[in-house]
Design a protein that fits this description.
Four copies of one chain form a homotetramer. Chain A is of the alpha/beta class. Chain A is built from twelve helices and 13 strands. Chain A has two domains: 4-146 and 319-331, NAD(P)-binding Rossmann-like Domain (Rossmann fold, 3-Layer(aba) Sandwich), CATH 3.40.50; 150-313, Dihydrodipicolinate Reductase, domain 2, CATH 3.30.360.10. The first copy, chain A, has helices spanning 14-24, 44-47, 79-90, 106-113, 120-123, 131-139, 149-163, 193-196, 210-218, 253-264, 285-288, 317-331, and strands at residues 4-9, 29-34, 70-73, 93-96, 126-128, 143-145, 172-178, 201-204, 226-232, 239-246, 270-272, 294-301, 306-313. Chain A has a seven-stranded mixed sheet with strand order 8-9-7-10-13-12-11. Chain A has a six-stranded parallel sheet with strand order 2-1-3-4-6-5, with helices on both faces. The mean pLDDT of chain A is 97.
Chain lengths: 348, 348, 348, 348
Amino acid sequence: MSAITVSIAGASGYAGGELLRLLLFHPDVRIQQATSERHFGQFVHKVHPNLRGQTTLKFCGMDDLQPCDLLFLCLPHGEAQKRIEHFSQIAPRIIDLSADFRLQNPDAYARWYGQSHLRPDLLGQFVYGIPELHRQQMQTARFISSAGCNATAAILALYPLFKEGLAQANQAIIEVKVGSSEAGNRPNEASHHPVRHGCVRSFKPTRHRHAAEIEQELSFNEAMTAHFSATAIEMVRGVLATAHVFLNRKLSEKDIWKIYRSYYASEPFVRIVKERDGLYRYPEPKLVAGTNFCDVGFELDGSTNRLVVISAIDNLMKGAAGQAVQAFNIMHGLPETRALQFPGLHPV
Amino acid sequence: MSAITVSIAGASGYAGGELLRLLLFHPDVRIQQATSERHFGQFVHKVHPNLRGQTTLKFCGMDDLQPCDLLFLCLPHGEAQKRIEHFSQIAPRIIDLSADFRLQNPDAYARWYGQSHLRPDLLGQFVYGIPELHRQQMQTARFISSAGCNATAAILALYPLFKEGLAQANQAIIEVKVGSSEAGNRPNEASHHPVRHGCVRSFKPTRHRHAAEIEQELSFNEAMTAHFSATAIEMVRGVLATAHVFLNRKLSEKDIWKIYRSYYASEPFVRIVKERDGLYRYPEPKLVAGTNFCDVGFELDGSTNRLVVISAIDNLMKGAAGQAVQAFNIMHGLPETRALQFPGLHPV
Amino acid sequence: MSAITVSIAGASGYAGGELLRLLLFHPDVRIQQATSERHFGQFVHKVHPNLRGQTTLKFCGMDDLQPCDLLFLCLPHGEAQKRIEHFSQIAPRIIDLSADFRLQNPDAYARWYGQSHLRPDLLGQFVYGIPELHRQQMQTARFISSAGCNATAAILALYPLFKEGLAQANQAIIEVKVGSSEAGNRPNEASHHPVRHGCVRSFKPTRHRHAAEIEQELSFNEAMTAHFSATAIEMVRGVLATAHVFLNRKLSEKDIWKIYRSYYASEPFVRIVKERDGLYRYPEPKLVAGTNFCDVGFELDGSTNRLVVISAIDNLMKGAAGQAVQAFNIMHGLPETRALQFPGLHPV
Amino acid sequence: MSAITVSIAGASGYAGGELLRLLLFHPDVRIQQATSERHFGQFVHKVHPNLRGQTTLKFCGMDDLQPCDLLFLCLPHGEAQKRIEHFSQIAPRIIDLSADFRLQNPDAYARWYGQSHLRPDLLGQFVYGIPELHRQQMQTARFISSAGCNATAAILALYPLFKEGLAQANQAIIEVKVGSSEAGNRPNEASHHPVRHGCVRSFKPTRHRHAAEIEQELSFNEAMTAHFSATAIEMVRGVLATAHVFLNRKLSEKDIWKIYRSYYASEPFVRIVKERDGLYRYPEPKLVAGTNFCDVGFELDGSTNRLVVISAIDNLMKGAAGQAVQAFNIMHGLPETRALQFPGLHPV
């Protein structure tokens, strides 16, 4: 089969860079164009130094975009909904990595983003980008909206419990520890190394927008509340989500294990990590850095019926570009793991 | 007044090293002896390199201990209760930094430590070492048991709320992010740099022993449950505690501010940190490294009545040696801040 | 062609782990056995957590080794020379990653390692493992001895200059900054996280053994002296070598560029990195982490004729396992880049 | 004696912040004013969070400066020479922490800074700020120019050797490893955490301006050449200087020890660090973080007569504010260690 032609709008950011890294090694893909207004005309490796010697691609402008089979959008908040008409004329399929089309409900969007959505009519046409929840819709989808990185970690950690109705709906506390790459590639006072280095900063104790995605995806028979907090720690890539839920019936760790197995045993990118001994008993972000894995583990406090579920991802991979490429593979009937097989490094 | 003579049993560990650092500069103190079986006869600066040129003190053996005014105990778990008779003959006053005498209730001790206490008769004689809660008893105390580092951060974060009966007693989730110095100075597989570096490790999702201290100190009219989890992150010194509690009545952030002010305004080592803007809106461990401060801040999620309280300490200072020296000052009627005035560094 | 069967003796260490990671994805290779006395019978992923879900291989004992096409040796210093007879009966080809067979001259070995070599007769049969210098001999080699990580970085930085006789032979100062993985996977006082974290430690100002390899490989018409020093910094993987040499004739940066190009332009794993602007003007270890690249750059101080040559590698890859797999590919007439194409991550 | 009134021009930077931290605890000093155009009117603790609760001082504007006993200048390059007339009317004594008045020779200034000096007439009136070299002149000095941080580390490492004429004058290679705080508090692309984190960046292989200071201070009977290179590593505070010199006569390590002792034994802030065993055999920046110490150690390679001298300082303390306060103490006949006694932390 001839190569699938893809272009990336907004390719100078971190998610765009990861897409370039992955797609350059994807045997079924030809990268046609990568846009950047800021770095127009430069070799992509000037911005993404790990691609030095891997490609001679240069950044083009947004207006230079030619028709292609699929367009990845890695644009600042609001741009996708503004230009979606134009983009959908360029490509029959679109994967948007921004937050613009994640929430199905326009009211929720307005409430969480403080402005009304420009294209509420299209919200229903975007499939929320977590394959483990929406694989089937993806196979025929035209539009996919990749999930937020923190939301991805939280949702995959809790999906089996809420789908099965095992957790109390309004007592889930979710804390994420995140790296500095989540804040993007633009320097600012908070990202200045002497300031950001070694910090353990509660940057969003409440009202983090990803809570809206979690609540959307984990509300089944009853609406769940995601009590969400985010802390920035000394790390560049990675998210560790620690979710504290209270079970609404008595379960053993073995019961819980079976439930998670039934959901994830056949998933290529979700690993249940729960060892009795050794150094690596639970998920750790650094072990999935550069990979598309989401590792999930848990521990039950029998005396209080609190279940602590821990998940780890690379925010730029399973939390962004890797998730998008996995969705891309599904959309095109390709093996899901294609171009996503890097196992990660140890030690690191 | 003539110097107060003190000795430190178990001075080669991290807490012992901090005590040496603080007491060497304490104008009212003369350090008489510092014991270490492992480093017997060596200069203390061989083990604590920051003391190079500050003292010619050498480690002696436990059996060499001479009578002194006050004895600090920094011994492995279980040693203090085993030798307390002997130690109390050496010194009229004792400050124990181990966990041996933190829990007043022998049953709680047996339940959390998996063995019955050797001297349940003495538990009642030890004052729990957080000055902000037990200053008055300290003034006349003979024995003080310093609090656990994580417990100190959690208790100071939540004390005003539980004392005032404002938080639901069985829904408090407390997550601490901790540095590697908490695990002590003995190398092991888990502390090996290539393994420990950059890790975000959920090492104790449930059943952390410090929960017992928190429940003891925060249970007033009704018993509270501390749903406690600990995550090891890339840091050497420091604890950030993030406590999620649900208020049992409607309060504004201003109301909560007033309550915290009423408890902590006159405390020399508790700072309420809550800024509307700037980079340092909430407590951060690195800003209190080397200091005896416990910074406390909070954010209210009005829509769910969840209050997130954040506190930061240096586990070796306010969480151990600094707290002990503060108690020491109180016991001797000295200004509480003596030898504890280092403000911390920035940037760091 | 049927798979090449390989086994790894000493597979629980960091170099062994990298070999496993690389060879598991090598299309022409079947990993037959991996030995570890310490972890006998355990799944390899218990020791190398990045391989979780990638293989069901378990560690076997040294005596269980079966005949195979090629044997990789990752054993402690001295073991290879002790058992070489036995190993050469197991496999027709051997790649030794230890230091045992790196020095061709038994006297040099005795001088640098403080003991006489057990098999001086074999030293001549081992090809020194840097493909850029010894590719041709490798094609027909039976035995290859992988180069030391620091030596690899230094040699590739300076090879063109000394081969061309352009640098003063006894004034080369080479400083390497190294990560903690160089010291192996056994915990010790120096590798304890609170001690090793953030350290900038001059651990080997003089007499580092890798100097012997550098002098062996860079002495052509006249003997060169490697004035070598090593500093441990806050890093797990990676080496940055900074070599200061004095040119023995007047050259421009352009002349030097041409010389390096003439040596490395066609090398798949050596990149000349020298940009006029941007953030990545010179080699950086983190950009080659997990890759087999050696990036080389330089800057000339025209006023003093000092040339500073900078090179960066991943000590476990181009400095160990990657270099060995590259040699393996050459020995078997395979494309050199096979199983070595990971481009590295950014940001990281 | 009544307090010495001091003001700080340019107090929002890192050096200014350290001056504030030190002077707030200096018993003989009253801080009168601290200027910042950018943060005019704000509390100093908004910019220097470690001063929270330590002072209610607010930043004023440059034009608000009132007469005081001594003025510290922490202004951007060029500002001091431009306004020196005005400043010298405000205060009878000035300590300038910028590079403006470090070089005595206007030609050297023009050569290294690419522009001619505005006040060559004053260069001779500024005492170069390293007390160990210029203590006597400081006692009566009106103007002091603090030394560059890297220059300070290099000069103190090599001073005894060059003063005694023991090192070859044109073969000294000096490599510094530096932290991110050296680049100041303004965010930029290079200081962005995901970029700067974990980097080992050769940012100035040649032509670093501090070389000019080193050559000025270490040239005695003959002009010495400082072959200087700087590498940025994962660290916020600190400099490790590794100096490689070739002795011009045969000396033993004991001889060298005696020479260093003769220069530094009575220095309050220079420690000779050279241990036969233990973890801390040589200087390490993290052990002097927050202190005014310069630790100096060395190792001799007898076979080549290369002496490697290693020194460590905190660039913001002995390399800037601490050095300035030490000079301040000398100028006023105060004990040199006043307000500079913090011993540093361990572990850290």
